[in-house]
């Protein structure tokens, strides 16, 4: 019964369907939009209904497209982008053009104007193209000065103390001393401040050698710059290789390594020794470099390596070969400890060998080197061996075991100077220097060091900023927050300021500003907030949003085609309609 | 051999290296061995360094005091610091009181100097620096989970007045930390003799961490130099506490020796130590146990402290001729006796009650075995994710018969993610009673990223600390507050004896979410959007119409489908059946077409042209 009823209904539906198809079969296919004919056919009314319908539908499609493509996608892009403060890429590039040229003055003083002129000519032509434009030497000659003091001086040292000329940074005076033979047989004597004394027989070549190799050192400046800019093509020279890397401050750690305190009782008041012997040097360097001094005693540490026994007629001594010196430092460094401070540490180690291998010396296979007691590891520190008197072994005597502070501290002082960056001066024939002052550093050496370090700071800052800009280009998910942006600006501005100061002959301020610029660039580059989104690269962002956007965008984009054809067919039909009405 | 004998003779004739005059520091090393009534052996190492100029100004020239630790203390303005790393639980009821008490895991508390700005920042930096120094994960300590207790953890240093500014104190505990070789090695590096000479050569990681309870402690505090206390000395105490279960060590015997406990014997004292002594507590020798000590001790000392007498066998290593290796051993005679262990005066336990993952309770049970009342201070530090309800706090004694009222209390409610719940109170325990302290809490549901990698393991709640003053020294071995070395506890009778106990740590299982939900959410949301948006768009921008089959433009898919159909059925019947219908349909419009005229046909043709 039910089946029959269903069949009836089915048949009725089919009939209705036939009727409808008969009615609508006249009409064309689905999507053809036909707004054309408003003729007096019966079908027009049905057509006109559909035309309005088509408009509404198209407007709906257009609104979807507008909302999604014009409003939605830019909003999504903006809200999911990585936070980046504006970085001045242009100004970072500009830094390359602002190359620093150090000015230097050399004044030649002699009572004979002829000598002055000939020296001027020779030296200015010889030093005109040094260092590829890093340092610009300006020569002057003067004959009008008070020569009486020069003639009546008792010794060159006294002459030096007299301060005849203003002692300004980067100003060198070459003073001819008539009758220098009464002081010394050498031709040229370099003073402690910024005066070079030469005799009447001194040759211009000697003066040129002194100026270029010792005082101005344009080659070293050029090399410092080239190494940072093109490290694959250039290698460090000896002095540059020893110099500690640039930093805000340095720590100096004195470690006394004494492996057998039960056999030898060694006493040393380190605090006083440092104050007496190193205090001058540290104070002299304090305007440009800050040091923190620490010290410790290590009692159960031995140096690696088995020394050989050397039997000589009077005594036996033990020798540590030069080849195993590099292997000593690594196990030693484990015990020296790393502190909480962020500054690089200069390690100065004093080793007191155990009784069985005492006295201990370092020997080299090179015949030119005598058995010595100390060695230096570039950019790390120095190790010194002290051999107390053999009679102390086994006796623990309260009184007689104080260390010889002066010899030890002098070696440490020399090692410290080399590590800071002061060069060992090569021998030039006929030239000597006055003995070192109490601080241990000559003023012209300080100038040269400031120039080299300022160059290092400025070039490093520039390279760091450029690397940061390149990284920002390549890796799209690095965050630059406000502080890092500020630091970048600070680095750029301070670099320019430093270069200005240097060119105005104010080397000290220029150096300090260059250090600040370098530190700002380093801080900006190594800020941990840069990598806050390191594990959220761009493709992950797309992967999360694609399942959401794809099913939405496909119908919208497909409807674009329909909209286009409606829009243009609409305009065609209206133009047709216009033609027909005309 | 002769050379060796000569050397040892020289060694033994060496008097103390009196360098304390020049550098102002001295070093002592001590080892205390005690046979506990339960059959365990308790060994306690204490290495004490006293530095005269250490505390006052930043002094960067160190001699015996370790340079790295001195730097940390001065840089962060720390007055007093106590760090302990422990594995295992100290059983107070069986073992008595340790010399230094420590909760399981890591515990760090520090007092900063007066006038320190930004204590929170310095606290974070201090915990990070110590984490690097000792290879322990102390960097998980942050100011948000470090309370400042108000009554407990008074400063043990030389100023000691209880009215210190409590905002300079920070306390934190990490119950999940483990202690192992990695921590022992830097610990030994801080000692002047490292691990080569002296008692520190007995600290072998393989044997030390094999014990039931092993704990490393570093305690720094300023100490009075003399009775007048005009000057202070910086005292560094490095302690190692071990409790060995002799059965586990093998050989099933009750005898112990250095070789069994530490694996090696002792080669000699540390040459830099002013004193190097071993104390063996022989009080139980005649009574509970019966053993012989070999070699013979240097002397026997009777220590009368607070009415209780303890006998110590003392070995002075500096005065001993050591031929091969020095090893103290105890051989038991007679049958094995299991004695009744009388518990100490105060001991406590703590556990969680409740079921389900919505509410729970913490119960701390404190036993008072003394015939008089005793005052205690209880400090509970509950993390912020277990919100506690102060109104549910109940302190009852003797099974609920007596309700106790604390005479001072301090409750600081916690704030989510910024402050833990701190509860501290002072209460008097009735004599011979068991006091129960009950507090209810809720389990809270954390944010997705706050769960640790193994979320179902649970979250740890740190141990509670009970501070009290004992009236007598039964089972008590602590060093008096005005002394530095263990030897100062001999005959050190005082009025009261301060002791700190730590309870167990708790493990709480918080309700954990389903961690795959974010993926599920993304899938669901995208599916819903796709399913909802598609039809919506279709409905608003398209209109369904019946197609005229003759004018139908067949797409690629329709073509393929028809071909497939014809291939499969391979009959022309379907074609014949389908064809009449369209032809019928076509006929009728054509009739009306004629009525409308040529326009209609042209329009149709246009449309046909456009659609093709």
Automatic annotation (TrEMBL), chain A:
Pfam families: PIG-S. Pathway: Glycolipid biosynthesis; glycosylphosphatidylinositol-anchor biosynthesis. It is a multi-pass membrane protein. The gene is LOC117653532. GO terms for biological process: attachment of GPI anchor to protein; GPI anchor biosynthetic process. Its main location: endoplasmic reticulum. This is GPI transamidase component PIG-S isoform X1. GO terms for cellular component: GPI-anchor transamidase complex. It is found in: Endoplasmic reticulum membrane. Keywords: Endoplasmic reticulum, Glycoprotein, GPI-anchor biosynthesis, Membrane, Transmembrane, Transmembrane helix.
Automatic annotation (TrEMBL), chain B:
The chain crosses the membrane at residues 517-536. Keywords: Membrane, Signal, Transmembrane, Transmembrane helix. GO terms for biological process: attachment of GPI anchor to protein. Residues 1-16 form the signal peptide. Residues 569-612 are annotated as: Disordered. GO terms for cellular component: GPI-anchor transamidase complex. InterPro entries: PIG-T. Residues 601-612 have a biased composition (Basic residues). Residues 569-581 have a biased composition (Polar residues). It comes from the Eukaryota. The keyword Transmembrane helix applies. PANTHER family: GPI TRANSAMIDASE COMPONENT PIG-T, GPI TRANSAMIDASE COMPONENT PIG-T-RELATED. This is GPI transamidase component PIG-T. The lineage of its organism: Eukaryota, Metazoa, Ecdysozoa, Arthropoda, Hexapoda.
């Amino acid at each position: 019964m039910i089946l029959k009823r269903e069949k009836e209904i089915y048949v009725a539906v089919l009939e209705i369907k036939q009727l409808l198809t008969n009615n609508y079969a006249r009409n064309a296919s689905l999507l053809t939009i036909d707004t054309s004919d408003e003729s007096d056919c019966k079908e027009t009314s049905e057509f006109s209904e559909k035309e309005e319908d088509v408009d509404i539908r198209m407007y709906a499609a257009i609104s979807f497209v507008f909302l999604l493509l014009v409003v939605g996608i830019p909003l999504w892009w903006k809200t999911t982008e990585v936070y980046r403060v504006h970085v001045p890429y242009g100004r970072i590039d500009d830094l390359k053009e602002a190359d620093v040229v150090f000015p230097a003055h050399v004044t030649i003083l002699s009572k004979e104007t002829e000598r002055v002129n000939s020296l001027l000519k020779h030296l200015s032509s010889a030093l005109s193209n040094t260092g590829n434009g890093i340092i610009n030497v300006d020569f002057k000659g003067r004959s009008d000065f008070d020569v009486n003091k020069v003639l009546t001086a008792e010794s060159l040292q006294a002459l030096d103390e007299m301060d005849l000329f203003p002692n300004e940074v980067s100003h060198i005076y070459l003073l001819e001393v008539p009758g220098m033979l009464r002081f010394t047989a050498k031709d040229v004597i370099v003073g402690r401040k910024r005066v070079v004394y030469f005799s009447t027989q001194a040759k211009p070549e000697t003066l040129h050698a002194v100026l270029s190799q010792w005082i101005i050192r344009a080659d070293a400046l050029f090399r410092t710059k080239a190494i940072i800019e093109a490290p694959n093509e250039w290698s460090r020279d000896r002095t540059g290789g020893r110099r500690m890397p640039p930093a805000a401050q340095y720590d100096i750690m004195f470690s006394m390594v004494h492996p057998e305190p039960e056999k030898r009782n060694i006493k040393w008041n380190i605090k006083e020794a440092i104050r007496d012997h190193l205090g001058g040097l540290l104070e002299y360097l304090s305007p440009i470099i800050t040091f923190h001094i620490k010290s410790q005693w290590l009692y159960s540490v031995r140096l690696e390596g088995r020394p050989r026994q050397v039997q000589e007629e009077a005594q036996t001594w033990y020798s540590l070969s030069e080849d195993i010196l590099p292997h000593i430092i690594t196990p030693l460094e484990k015990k020296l400890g790393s502190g909480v401070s962020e500054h690089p540490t200069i390690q100065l180690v004093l080793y007191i060998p155990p009784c069985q291998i005492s006295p201990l010396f370092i020997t080299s296979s090179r015949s030119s080197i005598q058995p010595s007691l100390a060695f230096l590891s570039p950019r790390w520190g120095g190790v010194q061996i002290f051999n107390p008197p053999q009679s102390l072994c086994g006796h623990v005597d309260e009184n007689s075991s104080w260390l010889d502070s002066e010899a030890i501290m002098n070696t440490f002082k020399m090692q410290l100077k080399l590590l800071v960056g002061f060069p060992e001066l090569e021998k030039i024939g006929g030239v000597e220097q006055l003995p070192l002052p109490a601080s241990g550093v000559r003023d012209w050496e300080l100038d040269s060091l400031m120039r080299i370090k300022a160059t290092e700071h400025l070039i490093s800052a520039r390279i760091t900023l450029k690397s940061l800009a390149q990284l920002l280009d390549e890796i799209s998910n690095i965050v630059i927050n406000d502080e890092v942006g500020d630091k970048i600006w600070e680095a750029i501005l301070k670099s320019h300021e430093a270069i200005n100061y240097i060119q105005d002959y104010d080397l000290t301020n220029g150096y300090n500003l260059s250090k600040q610029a370098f530190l700002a660039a380093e801080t900006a580059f190594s800020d941990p907030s840069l990598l806050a989104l390191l594990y959220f690269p761009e493709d992950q962002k797309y992967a999360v949003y694609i399942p959401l956007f794809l099913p939405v965008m496909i119908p919208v984009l497909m409807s674009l085609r329909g909209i286009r054809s409606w829009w243009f067919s609409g305009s065609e039909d209206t133009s047709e309609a216009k033609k027909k009405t005309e | 051999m002769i050379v060796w004998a000569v050397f040892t003779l020289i060694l033994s004739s060496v008097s103390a290296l009196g360098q304390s005059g020049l550098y102002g520091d001295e070093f002592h090393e001590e080892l205390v061995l005690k046979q506990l009534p339960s059959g365990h052996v308790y060994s306690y190492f204490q290495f004490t360094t006293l530095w005269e100029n250490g505390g006052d100004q930043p002094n960067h020239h160190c001699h015996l005091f370790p340079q790295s630790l001195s730097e940390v203390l001065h840089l962060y303005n720390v007055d007093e610091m106590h760090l302990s790393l422990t594995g295992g639980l100290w059983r107070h009821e069986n073992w008595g009181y340790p010399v230094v008490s420590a909760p399981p895991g890591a515990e760090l508390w520090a007092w900063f100097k007066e006038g320190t700005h930004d204590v929170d920042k310095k606290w974070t930096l201090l915990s990070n620096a110590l984490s690097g120094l000792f290879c322990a994960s102390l960097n998980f300590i942050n100011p948000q989970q470090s309370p400042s207790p108000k009554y407990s953890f008074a400063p043990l240093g030389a100023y000691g007045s209880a009215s210190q500014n409590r905002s300079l104190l920070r306390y934190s505990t990490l119950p999940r930390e483990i202690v192992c070789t990695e921590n022992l090695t830097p610990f030994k590096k801080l000692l002047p003799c490292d691990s080569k000479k002296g008692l520190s050569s007995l600290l072998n990681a393989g044997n030390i961490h094999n014990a039931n309870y092993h704990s490393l402690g570093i305690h720094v505090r300023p100490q009075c130099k003399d009775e007048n206390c005009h000057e202070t000395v910086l005292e560094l105490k490095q302690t190692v506490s071990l409790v060995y279960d002799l059965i586990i060590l093998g050989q099933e015997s009750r005898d112990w020796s250095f070789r069994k406990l530490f694996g090696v014997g002792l080669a000699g004292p540390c040459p830099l130590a002013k004193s190097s002594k071993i104390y063996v507590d022989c009080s139980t020798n005649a009574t509970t146990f019966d053993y012989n000590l070999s070699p013979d001790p240097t002397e026997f000392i009777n220590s009368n402290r607070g009415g209780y007498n303890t006998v110590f066998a003392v070995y002075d290593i500096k005065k001993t001729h050591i031929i091969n290796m020095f090893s103290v051993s105890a051989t038991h005679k007679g049958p094995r006796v299991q004695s009744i262990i009388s518990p100490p005066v105060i001991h406590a336990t703590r556990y969680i009650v409740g079921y389900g993952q919505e509410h729970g309770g913490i119960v701390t049970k404190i036993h008072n075995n003394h015939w008089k009342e005793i005052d205690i201070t209880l400090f509970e530090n509950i993390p912020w994710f277990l919100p506690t309800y102060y109104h549910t706090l109940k302190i009852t004694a003797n099974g609920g018969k007596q309700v106790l009222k604390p005479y001072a209390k301090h409750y600081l409610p916690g704030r989510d993610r910024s402050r833990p719940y701190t509860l501290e109170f002072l209460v008097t325990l009735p004599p011979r009673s068991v006091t129960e302290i009950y507090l209810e809490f809720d389990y809270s549901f954390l944010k997705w990223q706050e769960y640790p990698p193994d979320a179902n393991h649970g979250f740890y709640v740190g141990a509670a600390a009970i501070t009290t003053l004992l009236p007598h020294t039964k089972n008590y071995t602590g060093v008096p507050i005005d002394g530095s070395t263990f030897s100062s506890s001999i005959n050190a009778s005082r009025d009261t004896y301060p002791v700190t106990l730590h309870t167990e740590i708790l493990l709480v299982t918080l309700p954990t979410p389903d961690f795959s939900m974010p993926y599920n959410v993304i899938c669901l949301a995208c599916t819903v959007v796709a399913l909802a948006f598609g039809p919506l768009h279709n409905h608003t921008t398209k209109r369904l119409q019946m197609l005229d089959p003759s004018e139908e433009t067949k797409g690629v898919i329709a073509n393929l489908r028809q071909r497939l159909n014809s291939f499969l059925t391979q009959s022309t019947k379907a074609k014949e059946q389908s064809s009449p219908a369209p032809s019928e349909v076509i006929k009728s419009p054509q009739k009306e077409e004629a009525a409308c005229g040529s326009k209609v046909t042209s329009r149709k043709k246009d449309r046909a042209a456009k659609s093709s």
